[in-house]
TrEMBL record:
Keyword DNA-binding: no
BTB domain boundaries: 42-109
Name of protein: Kelch-like protein 23
Keywords: Kelch repeat, Repeat
Superkingdom of this protein's organism: Eukaryota
Species lineage: Eukaryota, Metazoa, Chordata, Craniata, Vertebrata
Keyword Repeat (UniProt): yes
Species whose genome carries this gene: Channa argus (Northern snakehead)
Pfam families listed in its UniProt record: BACK, BTB
PANTHER family for the chain: BTB DOMAIN-CONTAINING PROTEIN (PTHR24412:SF490), KELCH PROTEIN (PTHR24412)
Length: 564
């Protein structure tokens, strides 16, 4: 079995409640919950620490290559009715045997690591995945470095990726932790070279390198290699001045600065390309009363906390349109427009953030309003909504830079309007919404891009419409009446029990640098100009602004990522 890394799951104030799989079943399948599978006849006995487990060979072999080789391989055990399993803990083995029979895995912070390692040893991949998702939900600033090392050691790629992303997006706090000093040179270099490193200036990168190298004199040989990853043009004069002024000759960092002066990095020379580019994520918010001549556009930079106005959308009497981000542009599609009577439109307006101007885009194939739209890779998708004749399930896509215009793709499984949408792992998800009967639809519809195919992957335990959704570290978060996390791979819904969210509804939601922002709370028919910050990795759920400059109601809230 794998040797456990120094990983501790510390209690924190963010409260999570994982709902059972039964809550995810649609109403039409409710009768199936009362049906029991036929008993599997035991034909073998597994012996662990003196306790016997009566199992069915074929049943276990279907779940695990380990048991497939044990029972149907060429070893001596394949001919035995009683086989002793060594190297596993009885308590964890008992839990996994129960899981193999019922598909319900009982996990808590005290047992999850042991059960994961036992599942890894027995090659019970589904149980292993459930354990990893549990650990992903437990990720926190206090354990992400240890979890990253542990996941890498055990080969849990998704858990490693999620933990690494927490480190990258919270680097300013992580770099001061004691565990940071125990990282390898390769890990430090990997983090500093990442485009996802969330730092406003490279002052922090240089400071982290000095801190890590000076901790151990044997690391001085790595200093010049690591310093190549610092962008000199992103160092502030104030930081350099204070560093040199306050540094004493006895300071271990003084020797490193002297080394830097003697061996000037080649990548710092003028005209040399850098090995790391810095990505800046900015929130764009669009809103205002529809009966005004223009609707306002503002952008918010989370690292500086500053708002700035942009060129407004020049459209009066346009509402119920959809807003999405693709590349460095904001797309406004469709909507409901009034001249004398209200009618759906096929208009597309594009705001180029770099040029700070609005352009007309190619018209949609079908006029629609109250629909979803989202950008994924280099493609913009428009899904569902309503036409003047009623709901439609049609989906259109626009390839960025293409002259072909909009083209139809496979329609959704269920036509909905006023739904929420987000993109995860090259798939588009549409959550809930209003169906053709005017009722809240509970399904989570998924569009697999490479297969051009829709399916329903789960059912929300709290079906509603006018929800907002976003993605964070491979999980889907849905807000509106309840704050929910959905893990697609294991079909697990988790309720985030945060008082600041409660039963609130919001007009917009987006993710920036590992933190979720919820914009403009809605109560009845009134919208408020506030903004909430939700960060499960630092137990933060608070109102960061009670008077955002963008007028309400908010029509759209998206993140634009620009590489600098």
């Amino acid at each position: 079995m794998a040797c456990r890394a120094d990983t501790e799951l510390k209690p924190h104030s963010f409260r999570l409640t994982v709902l059972s799989e039964g809550t995810n079943k649609p109403e039409e399948d409710e009768s199936a919950l009362h049906m029991e599978d036929p008993d599997t006849i035991p034909d073998a006995i597994l012996l662990v620490e003196g306790e016997s487990f009566y199992v069915n060979r074929q049943h276990l072999a279907l779940q695990s290559p380990y048991f497939r080789a044990l029972f149907f391989g060429c070893g001596l055990e394949s001919n035995k009715k009683k086989v002793e399993i060594k190297g596993v803990v009885l308590q964890h083995f008992r839990t996994l045997m129960e899981y193999s029979r019922t598909s319900n895995l009982a996990l808590n912070r005290e047992t999850v690591l042991g059960i994961l390692e036992t599942a890894d040893f027995l090659q019970l991949e589904r149980a292993r995945l459930v354990c990893c998702k549990f650990l992903e939900r437990e990720l926190h600033l206090s354990n992400c470095l240890g979890m990253m090392a542990y996941a890498w050691q055990l080969g849990c790629i998704q858990l490693y990726t999620a933990a690494r992303q927490v480190v990258l997006t919270h680097f300013s706090a992580i770099s001061t932790e004691e565990d940071f000093l125990s990282l390898s040179k390769e890990t430090i270099a990997d983090l500093l070279a990442s485009n996802d490193l969330a730092i406003s200036k490279d002052d922090l990168a240089l400071e982290a390198i000095l801190h890590w190298v000076s901790f151990d004199p044997t690391r001085e040989a790595h200093f010049l290699e690591l310093i190549e990853l610092v962008r000199p043009e992103s160092l502030s004069l104030q930081f350099i001045t204070e560093l040199l002024t306050r540094m004493k000759s006895s300071d271990p960092r003084a020797k490193l600065i002297f080394m830097l002066n003697e061996h000037f990095p080649a990548s710092w020379s003028v005209g040399r390309s850098m090995r790391r580019t810095r990505a800046r994520e900015t929130i764009f918010v669009l809103g205002g009363p529809h009966n005004q001549e223009e609707q306002a556009v503002y952008y918010f930079h989370p690292l500086s906390g500053r708002w700035q106005s942009c060129a407004p959308l020049q459209r009066k009497n346009l509402t119920q349109y959809s807003v999405a981000a693709l590349g460095d542009s904001v797309f406004v599609t469709g909507g409901y427009f009034r001249e004398v009577l209200w009618f759906s439109v096929d208009w597309v307006r594009i705001y180029e953030c770099g040029n700070q101007r609005w352009l007309d885009g190619p018209a949609l194939q079908k006029s629609r309003h109250s629909h979803c739209s989202i950008g994924l890779d280099s493609v913009l998708y428009v899904m569902g909504g309503s036409m003047d004749e009623g709901l439609l399930a049609d989906v259109e896509r626009l390839v960025l830079g293409s002259e072909e215009g909009w083209e139809g793709v496979s329609p959704m499984v269920r036509a909905v309007e006023r739904a929420a949408t987000a993109a995860l792992s090259s798939c588009v998800y549409v959550a809930c919404g209003l169906d053709e009967n005017g009722e809240a639809y509970s399904g989570i519809q998924r569009y697999v891009v490479k297969e051009d195919q829709w399916d329903v992957v789960s059912y929300s335990p709290f079906p509603r419409y006018d929800l907002v959704a976003t993605e964070l570290n491979g999980a889907l978060y849905v807000f509106g009446g309840q704050a929910l996390r959905f893990d697609v791979d294991t079909d697990e819904w988790t309720v985030l029990k945060e008082e600041c969210l409660g039963t609130k509804f919001f007009c917009g939601c987006t993710t920036v640098s590992g933190q979720m922002y919820l914009v403009s709370e809605r109560k009845s028919n009134k919208a408020f100009p506030n903004m909430m910050l939700l960060d499960p990795y630092i137990d933060a759920c608070l109102e960061v602004d009670d008077a955002i400059p963008c007028p309400v109601p908010i029509r759209g809230c998206v993140t634009i990522r620009m590489v600098m």
